Automatic annotation (TrEMBL):
Gene3D superfamilies: N-(1-d-carboxylethyl)-l-norvaline Dehydrogenase, domain 2, NAD(P)-binding Rossmann-like Domain. Belongs to the ketopantoate reductase family. This is 2-dehydropantoate 2-reductase. The lineage of its organism: Bacteria, Pseudomonadati, Pseudomonadota, Betaproteobacteria, Burkholderiales. One of its GO terms (biological process) is pantothenate biosynthetic process. Residues 178-315 form the Ketopantoate reductase C-terminal domain. It catalyses: (R)-pantoate + NADP(+) = 2-dehydropantoate + NADPH + H(+). The keyword Kinase does not apply. Transmembrane segments: none annotated. InterPro entries: 6-PGluconate_DH-like_C_sf (IPR008927), 6PGD_dom2 (IPR013328), ApbA (IPR003710), Ketopantoate_reductase (IPR050838), KPA_reductase (IPR013752), KPR_N (IPR013332), NAD(P)-bd_dom_sf (IPR036291). It comes from the Bacteria.
Amino acid sequence: MKIAIFGAGSIGVYIGGSLLASGAEVVLVGRARMRQQIAREGLLLTDLSGRSMQLAAVDVPYAETAAALADADLILVTVKSADTPAAATEIAAHAKPSALIVSLQNGVGNADTLRQALPGWTILGGMVPFNVAQMAGSRFHRATGGELVIEASPALRGWETVFRAAHLPLQESDEFPSMQWGKLLLNLNNSVNALSDLPLKAELSQRAYRRCLALLIEEALPLLRAAGIRPAKIARVGPQLLPTLLRLPDALFKRLAATMLQIDPEARSSMWDDLHNGRLSEVDYLNGAIVRLAESLGREAAANRRITALIHAAEGTTLRPLSGEVLYSALAGASQKEMV
């Protein structure tokens, strides 16, 4: 059974490399830059538990075109959300209709986009709860915990063993949309982290930045209720309690929410990585998803709209970090203007 990783970024390379190291047949499909990096340095995969896996360049099958999807039995889609329609077109042109397609992308709605473009194919939504930091020496470091979550389906039979052998056990969910929205609420922090220019652990250790995240989540919760969406509990506390927890003083937060800070000191958000590498971010599919949900209800999400604009303004420029106090003032000010 052959697996294709369609989108060889940090997440795609880590998952694909882990599967390769366990003996699975895998091909990575991505850009020339990543192919050249792997050709020079191979792959080093590490994680929080101290596990380390080294792969020589010759042991990492890599292709730059979607023609490599032709004989894949499982295609893991890990491209940026904005590239999902193009990915669907390439899958339709090159993959076999019997292939199982799993979206392991940020945001909500990517699996639906694939389904609309590929009627009759078996397509499942998936969620990657952990962060992967790309570091010097072609090292891809899994810096946070969590297990892959995928929509429950008989189509996964046989694949569970393959992923378990790669230390990537699959958690099947019968309520996947709720899981995805629960994850999106946590991912609203990606933009806060990017604008802080700090590692995740350092950012979340500061109450001023946590207040920003609390404001973004608190703005989203009534919109989700109005839309009939019940976000699942992804963190140790449920979504409704998260804003209160995040606003606690630093000392109390560190004591009561210690598990939220069990993050490798080197970990940063993928959005920070995008900004520092001159790439467009996925903010429109995270905070922007809350803005679109508000618009569909005839409401406003001023704080999420404001941070979306701040991220877009930072794209393609030298990032100027914002303190937690300055960022909170910008977000709270936007919300207050909306209420006037």
